[in-house]
C-alpha cells in the first residue's frame, strides 16, 4: 500500500541505471517494505535492484520476498553472486529456499558456499519437512555455564551480530547439552563478577528436532515464548524457533484446516501464486470422490420411486431436506474440528461431554427448524399431512446431521488421524444419503 | 498432558491443607503449566491454590487461565485480595478480564486499586473492543533522546521489572511523542559515553490506538516484530502490542473465519466453554435464513413439475446436480476468502486475474466432472440421452458454481464488507437454485 506509491520512483531509477539511487532507496526502507515493492517487478528487475546493495542488505530484502518469487529469482542469478546471497541468508530461510529448488541446481551451488554454511545447510536439509528441525535457525546465542557475567557479555558481543534473538541466551555444557536459559535483561543488570551459573533458569522448556511444527507453535503460544530451543535425542542444543516462525506456522495451519474443511488439498504457496494445474490437482480429487455419494443418493431415490411417483409433492422438498441436514452438520463439524485444533489435549470425558452437547443441540435446533419448516410448507402446500411429513423429516434429519457432524471428526481422531482431514462436503454427502432415507421412510409411515 | 500427571499430588496437598507444599509446587512449575493443572479444579480450589503464593506469582498463574475460568474465580474471591491480584496483573490481561466482568462488581473494586493502576485501567477500558488500544500493554521501556548510553542503561535498570519486552526500547520527546527505537543489543554493546541519539533508528513503524487488532497482527507478521508501538492521534506513545498477542489474534481471527465459512456466528470463548444457549443463538440465525433458498428451490421444482412428471429419471440426479455445484463453489469461495484474509492489499488487477483463473478452473473442472458423470450415469440408466442431460448439466452447474463462489466474496469486498461474512452454505444455497434451473432447462432442450 505504502510501497506501491514508491514503485514509479524505483522504475525511473531502473530506467536511468541510477545504481547509487537504488542503493539509497533500499537502505532507506524497511526490508519488508522494499520486498513488497519488488513483488511488482519481474525477476531480472528485482535482481538488478537488490544487487545494488551490499550482501547483507541483499539477503535481508530477499528473505522477505515470497518463496515462489525467490525461486524465480534464483533462476536468473549467476552462481557466484547467488552463492554469496545464500551464505548471507538466515539458516532457516535459505533451507526453505534450497529445499524447493531443483536438486541439480543446489548441487551445483553448494561447492561455492563456505564450508561452515555448507555443512549447516546439509544438516538442516536432512530434517523432515514441517518438523522443528526444518523451521529452526542455527543462529542463536549460547554460553558455557562456568564463566562470570562479564565474560558472558564479552562472549555475546562476539556472537551478537549472528544471533537472531538475544532476549534469552542458552547455556550449554561441554557436550553442547542444554542446561538452562539466562535472560539478557538479568544478565546486563547483574554484578559483572557474579558467576553466570547463579542466573541460570534450569527449568527450560524445549522441543525435539523431529517434533511437528504445529506442536512447536502451540508450545510457543502456550508459554508466550519469544523463541523456543530445539534439541536432538541427546538433549544437545541444535537450534531455536523464533516467534515470527510461530506466527507463520499458525497462519499456514489455519489455512490448511480451512482448505480441508472445504475439500481442497493444502497448497504449498499462496493461492494467488499457485499455477492453474496445481490448483486443479488439489481440487479434483475430492470433487470426483464426492460424485460417489451423489450416485448413491440416486440409488436411494430409485429405491423410493414408487412412493415419489404416488406423492409427487415429496420431490419439491428434497433440496430442503438435503440442505437442513448438511448445514447443521457442517456447523457442528467445523466447531468441533476447530476446538480440537486449538486445544490439543482434550480428554475423553470432555469429548463425551461435547458429544452430549451436540446431541442436545440437535434436539433443540431440530425442533426449531422443524416448526418453521412445518409452518412454511403448510402455507406452501395447503395440506396438513404434507407439512407434517416435512416438519418431522426436518427434525430427524437435523438431529442426524448434527450427530454425524459431531461424531465423524471425533471418530477420525480416535483412529489417530487428523480430524481436519474430514471435509464438510463429505459430511454433507453422507448426511444427504441418510437424509433421503429418513425423509421417504417418514413419508411412507405418515401417508400410508 | 504433562500437568495432568501432577494433579493427584496437588489434590493430596489440598486435602491435607499443606499450604507450604502448594506454594513450593507453584514455584517449581511454569505458570502456564500450573494454570493447565488448575483448569481441572473448581473456582474455590483454584483460589485456595494460588492464594498460597506471593502476589506476583498469583497474577502470573492467574493470567494463564482461560478468561471464562478467570471470571468464575473472581466471583469467589473477597474484594481485598482480588484488588491486590488485579493490581499485579499485566495491564492488557486485567483489562480483558475487567471488560468481561459485571460493571457493578468492577465499580466496587476500582476504589480499592492503587491510583496509578486505576487510571490506567479506566483509560484502557475506554478503547473499543478489538482495537490496538484494547489489546496493548502499557508496561514498556522508554527513554528520552538526550542522554548517554550509560544513563540509558541506568534508567532501564529502574524500568526493567515492569516492562514486558525490552529487546527494543522506545525513545520519546518531552511531549511523549515517539521519536524512534533503540535495540537493547546495540545499547549494551555501545560505548557508555556515546549519546543515545546516535543509536536511534528513527524510521519506526507504529500502529494507531484505534487500528483494528487484525491489522496490528498483520503488521507484526509482515515485519517480524517482537512488539509494535501504539500511538494516539498526536503520535504520543501510549502502549505496545507484543508477539504473544499477535499469535492470539491470528488464532482468534482464523477461528472466526472458519466459523463464518460454516455459517456460525463467532463465539467469544472456546466452543468447549460456551453455554448451550449461546451456541444455539450463534447457529440458529443462519439455519433459519438458509430455509428461504430451500423453499425457493421447492418453487423452482414446482415450476418444472410437468417436465419431471414426464421424465421421472430426472429426479434421481437432483442430489448430484446440487452437490457438484455446491462443492465446487465452496472450494472457490474458501480459496478466495482465505487469500483475501492473508493478503490484505490485493489490487484490482490481481482480483480480475483471480476471477479469470476461477473461470478457467470452472471450464476445466466442469469438463472433467461432466465426463465422469456422463459415464457413470450412462452405466446407471443405460440411456445415452439421459447421460447427455446429466453430463451437460454437471458441466454448466460446476462452471456456474465456481464463478459464483469466486464472485460473491469479491462482491462483498467491493461493497466494503468482510468477504468472510459470506458463508459456504449460503453460496451453496444460491448455487442450488440456479443449478436446478440449469438442469431442467438442459433437460427440456435435449429431451424435447
TrEMBL record, chains A, B:
<dbReference type="GO" id="GO:0046872">
    <property type="term" value="F:metal ion binding"/>
</dbReference>
<keyword id="KW-1133">Transmembrane helix</keyword>
<keyword id="KW-0813">Transport</keyword>
<dbReference type="GO" id="GO:0005886">
    <property type="term" value="C:plasma membrane"/>
</dbReference>
<feature type="domain" description="CBS">
    <location>
        <begin position="200"/>
        <end position="256"/>
    </location>
</feature>
<feature type="domain" description="CBS">
    <location>
        <begin position="136"/>
        <end position="198"/>
    </location>
</feature>
<dbReference type="InterPro" id="IPR046342">
    <property type="entry name" value="CBS_dom_sf"/>
</dbReference>
<dbReference type="InterPro" id="IPR000644">
    <property type="entry name" value="CBS_dom"/>
</dbReference>
<keyword id="KW-0460">Magnesium</keyword>
<dbReference type="Pfam" id="PF00571">
    <property type="entry name" value="CBS"/>
</dbReference>
<feature type="transmembrane region" description="Helical">
    <location>
        <begin position="284"/>
        <end position="301"/>
    </location>
</feature>
<keyword id="KW-0129">CBS domain</keyword>
<dbReference type="InterPro" id="IPR006668">
    <property type="entry name" value="Mg_transptr_MgtE_intracell_dom"/>
</dbReference>
<dbReference type="Pfam" id="PF01769">
    <property type="entry name" value="MgtE"/>
</dbReference>
<dbReference type="InterPro" id="IPR006667">
    <property type="entry name" value="SLC41_membr_dom"/>
</dbReference>
<feature type="transmembrane region" description="Helical">
    <location>
        <begin position="429"/>
        <end position="447"/>
    </location>
</feature>
<feature type="transmembrane region" description="Helical">
    <location>
        <begin position="387"/>
        <end position="408"/>
    </location>
</feature>
<comment type="subunit">
    <text>Homodimer.</text>
</comment>
<dbReference type="InterPro" id="IPR006669">
    <property type="entry name" value="MgtE_transporter"/>
</dbReference>
<comment type="similarity">
    <text>Belongs to the SLC41A transporter family.</text>
</comment>
<dbReference type="InterPro" id="IPR036739">
    <property type="entry name" value="SLC41_membr_dom_sf"/>
</dbReference>
<keyword id="KW-0479">Metal-binding</keyword>
<dbReference type="Pfam" id="PF03448">
    <property type="entry name" value="MgtE_N"/>
</dbReference>
<protein>
    <recommendedName>
        <fullName>Magnesium transporter MgtE</fullName>
    </recommendedName>
</protein>
<keyword id="KW-0472">Membrane</keyword>
<keyword id="KW-1003">Cell membrane</keyword>
<comment type="function">
    <text>Acts as a magnesium transporter.</text>
</comment>
<feature type="transmembrane region" description="Helical">
    <location>
        <begin position="313"/>
        <end position="340"/>
    </location>
</feature>
<dbReference type="GO" id="GO:0015095">
    <property type="term" value="F:magnesium ion transmembrane transporter activity"/>
</dbReference>
<dbReference type="InterPro" id="IPR038076">
    <property type="entry name" value="MgtE_N_sf"/>
</dbReference>
<feature type="transmembrane region" description="Helical">
    <location>
        <begin position="361"/>
        <end position="381"/>
    </location>
</feature>
<keyword id="KW-0812">Transmembrane</keyword>
Amino acid at each position: 500500500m505504502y510501497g506501491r506509491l514508491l514503485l514509479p520512483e524505483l522504475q525511473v531509477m531502473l530506467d536511468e541505471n541510477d545504481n547509487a539511487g537504488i542503493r539509497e532507496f533500499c537502505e532507506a526502507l524497511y526490508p519488508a517494505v522494499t520486498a513488497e515493492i519488488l513483488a511488482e517487478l519481474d525477476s531480472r528487475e528485482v535482481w538488478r535492484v537488490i544487487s545494488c546493495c551490499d550482501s547483507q542488505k541483499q539477503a535481508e530484502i530477499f528473505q522477505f520476498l515470497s518463496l515462489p518469487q525467490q525461486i524465480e529469482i534464483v533462476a536468473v542469478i549467476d552462481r557466484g553472486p547467488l552463492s554469496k546471497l545464500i551464505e548471507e541468508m538466515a539458516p532457516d530461510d535459505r533451507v526453505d529456499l534450497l529445499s524447493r529448488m531443483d536438486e541439480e541446481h543446489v548441487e551445483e551451488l553448494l561447492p561455492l558456499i563456505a564450508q561452515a554454511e555448507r555443512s549447516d545447510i546439509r544438516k538442516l536439509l536432512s530434517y523432515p519437512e514441517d518438523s522443528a528441525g526444518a523451521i529452526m535457525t542455527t543462529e542463536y546465542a549460547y554460553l558455557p555455564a562456568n564463566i562470570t557475567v562479564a565474560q558472558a557479555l564479552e562472549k555475546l558481543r562476539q556472537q551478537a551480530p549472528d544471533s537472531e534473538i538475544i532476549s534469552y541466551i542458552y547455556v550449554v555444557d561441554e557436550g553442547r547439552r542444554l542446561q538452562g536459559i539466562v535472560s539478557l535483561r538479568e544478565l546486563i543488570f547483574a554484578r559483572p563478577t557474579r558467576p553466570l551459573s547463579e542466573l541460570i533458569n534450569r527449568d527450560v522448556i524445549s522441543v525435539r528436532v523431529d517434533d511437528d511444527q504445529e506442536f512447536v507453535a502451540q508450545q510457543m503460544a502456550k508459554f508466550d515464548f519469544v523463541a523456543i530451543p530445539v534439541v536432538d535425542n541427546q538433549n544437545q542444543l541444535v537450534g531455536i524457533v523464533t516467534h515470527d516462525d510461530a506466527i507463520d506456522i499458525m497462519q499456514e495451519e489455519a489455512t490448511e484446516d480451512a482448505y480441508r474443511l472445504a475439500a481442497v488439498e493444502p497448497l504449498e504457496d499462496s493461492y494467488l501464486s499457485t499455477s492453474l494445474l496445481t490448483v486443479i490437482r488439489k481440487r479434483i480429487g475430492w470433487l470426483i470422490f464426492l460424485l460417489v455419494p451423489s450416485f448413491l443418493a440416486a440409488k436411494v431415490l430409485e429405491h423410493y420411486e414408487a412412493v415419489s411417483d404416488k406423492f409427487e409433492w415429496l420431490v419439491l422438498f428434497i433440496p430442503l431436506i438435503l440442505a437442513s441436514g448438511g448445514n447443521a452438520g457442517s456447523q457442528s463439524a467445523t466447531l468441533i474440528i476447530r476446538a480440537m485444533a486449538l486445544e490439543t489435549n482434550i480428554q475423553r470425558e470432555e469429548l463425551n461431554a461435547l458429544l452430549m452437547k451436540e446431541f442436545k443441540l440437535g434436539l433443540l435446533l431440530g425442533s426449531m427448524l422443524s416448526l418453521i419448516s412445518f409452518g412454511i410448507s403448510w402455507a406452501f402446500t395447503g395440506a396438513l399431512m404434507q407439512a407434517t411429513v416435512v416438519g418431522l423429516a426436518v427434525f430427524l434429519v437435523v438431529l442426524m446431521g448434527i450427530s454425524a457432524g459431531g461424531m465423524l471428526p471425533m471418530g477420525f481422531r480416535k483412529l489417530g488421524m487428523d480430524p481436519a482431514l474430514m471435509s464438510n462436503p463429505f459430511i454433507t454427502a453422507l448426511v444427504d444419503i441418510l437424509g433421503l432415507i429418513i425423509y421417504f421412510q417418514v413419508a411412507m409411515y405418515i401417508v400410508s
